[in-house]
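Here is an idea for our session: we take a single protein and study its fold together. Start from the sequence, derive the backbone structure tokens from it, and show both lines together. Once you have written the record down, we can walk along the chain together:
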Amino acid sequence: MMNEQADLNQQLILGGQQDEDQYLTFMMAGEEYGMDILAVQEIRGWEDATVIPNAPAFVKGAINLRGTIVPIIDLRLRFGIESVAYGPLTVVIVVSVEIKDQLKVMGLVVDAVSDVYSISEEKAKDVPDFQDSDNAQYVHGLVNVGEKMVVLLNLARVLDLSANYMQHG
């Protein structure tokens, strides 16, 4: 019975189109990025985080979210984009992603939440191959939504802080 309800909910969310996934999009430095909405637990306003000593610069600290310690990552710094002061639109997107068979909950600081789109996997284009770009590893694909390009993120790679390709910043 529970699976039938979950299937029904999934059909309602997707509007009956099984070949499309929903992506939450957000803005950073004038660009729109997207992540699988199923990974999103909640969206919160920015709040000060407890600083973690010797953490990489892009780790702003940690917050206590209903008993769970959640590391907070500034995606601008993670991607090597110039940092900006946090404002009233700055949000933390709390995500849950499986990395190396462990479920990790992390908060991602972004400039603002934008929209939710239904995007079919086939429409996502591969990222052009830039040999010197660490950031290309974080990108799952590029997709046109209307007149704009949305960068779809590979959250598992973005959040895997132990991998060698993540140790800059």
In short: Helices lie at 2-14, 75-78, 155-159. The CA atoms of residues 74 and 158 lie 11 Å apart. The first strand starts at residue 20 and ends at 28. The chain is about 15% helix and 45% strand.
